[in-house]
Structure prediction request, 317 residues.
Amino acid sequence: MTKFLSQWTIKDLLDAESHFHLEYVDDEDTVVTVMQKMRTKKISSLPVRDSITKKFIGIIDVLDMVTFCCTKYATVSLQAWDSYQQMESFAKTKCKYLLDISGRNTWRVMSQNRPLEDLVAVLSNPHAHRVGVVNERHEVVGLISQSKLIQFLWKNRHRLETSLQNIIKSKVELWTHIHTQQVQTIPQTAAVYDAFYAIWQREVSGLAVVDVEGKLVANISASDIKRCRFYPIIGQMIKDLYTPIKDFLRIPESATDLKKKHHIPYYIHKSDSMDKVFELIVSEGIHRVFVIDSKMKPIAVISLCDILRRFLESSSH
Prediction:
């Protein structure tokens, strides 16, 4: 069996997609424009194009928005009339000033002719969530995220080399100490702003939301900033930021309601196999799966970055 990651190119991944349309914003567009487009298109990042040269100069994503939110509203007033001017300034800020303010979102481009293994190497970096793909004329012909890459690997799992197939078949318990991240939690009674501040300060992309007993009840991530209302009208954004997470995410009262309303976060047990993780990530379009114990308490989290890093390690051996 040939080594899939080294024999295939990035172009093979692009060709496997049924269609591609590059969504982007111009550097003069405002925060409100960015957030509206992210919400409408159901995406978490947008390349930024220079409005004069028409060339792409960077990328803006939800982590940049969270960073801007946390640094701008560090000492915010809960009173709408005190904060109106601040909110208006926030909403009208041009996105060119937000490029990679999180320090975790550098604009990277790769040739479509590079081996797929090179793409895995780049996207296994926790500060690289997506890569722009260029052709021989250096024109952007694609934008590949960690999610798209893992979807492609999962779809072609039967063509992977044995070492990579073994990763998919392995037990989750083999990952929980060396291939997973430490779980970052936050109480469901905390304010949404507190969650975003923790995401920014701890340099993570999501948190496990727990109840008073420490049981997993939800997941809040940087992408949830798209739920906030960014118009500076009657203090809507301030209200959203200081709403308890429980109310913001509409977390039901009981575990039964959680399952019925599909609010429960995606989780697995240590005894499960990694193929279940892949199935959840691909079918549900999620970025992390929590590992829980018998009491429903989160003990680990498996992210897209964790999986790609493990694939890279196994492929190089």
Summary: The chain has 14 helices and twelve strands.
